[in-house]
Amino acid sequence: MMQFTTSVPLLPPIGPDGLRLLLDEDEDDAPKPSLGGSWPWRGRLLASAKTLGSFNTASCMEQLLVHFANAIESNDATLAQQILWVLNNIAPPDGDCNQRLTSAFLRALVARASRTGSCKMLTAVAARADAELALHLHRFSAIDLASFIDLTPWHRFGYAAANAAIAEAVEGLPVVHIVDLSTTHCMQMPTLINLLANRPEGPPLIRLTVSGLTTTAAPPILDMTYDELGSRLVNFASSRNVAMEFRVIPSDPGDAFDSLIEQLRVQQLVSEGEALIVNCQMLLHYIPEETVGVIASTMNIGPPMLSLRTMFLKALRSLEPTLVTVVDEDADFTACDVVRRLRSAFNYLWIAYDAVDTFLPKGSEQRRRYEAGVGWKIENVIAEEGVQRVERLERKGRWAQRMRATGFRSVGFTEEAAGEVKSMLDEHAAGWGMKREEEDLMLTWKGHNVVFATAWLPA
Amino acid sequence: MKREHQETGAGGGSGYHVATAADMAGAKGKMTAAPSMGTEDDDCGVDELLAALGYKVRSSDMADVAQKLEQLEVAMASTAAAASDDASVLPQIASDTVHYDPSDLSTWLDSMLSELNAPPPPLPPPPVAAAVYHHHHHHHRFDVSTASEPPAITTVAPLRPSDAYDFKPVPPPAAASDGRIVYGLDPQSEMIVSPRDQKRKRTCSPSSSSSRGTEAGRARGSRAEGASPAKPAAALPVVVVDTQETGIRLVHALMACAEAVQQENLKAADALVKHISVLAASQDGPMRKVAGYFAEALARRIYRRRPLSQVDRALDSPALEDLLHLHFYESCPYLKFAHFTANQAILEAFSGCRRVHVIDFGMRQGMQWPALLQALALRPGGPPSLRLTGIGPPQSGHSDALQQVGWKLAMLAKTIGVNFRYRGFVVSSLADLESRMLLERDGNGGDRDDEGEEEAVAVNSVMELHRLLARTGAVEKVLRMVLAVRPRIVTVVEEEANHNEGTFLDRFTEALHYYSSMFDSLEGSGGQAAEAGEEEQRHRAMAEAYLGRQICNVVACEGAERTERHETLGQWRGRMARAGFEPAHLGSNAFKQASMLLALYAGGDGFRVEETDGCLTLGWHTRPLIATSAWRVAAAAAAAH
Question: Residue B367 and residue A39: Cβ atoms within 8 Å?
Answer without folding.
Answer: yes
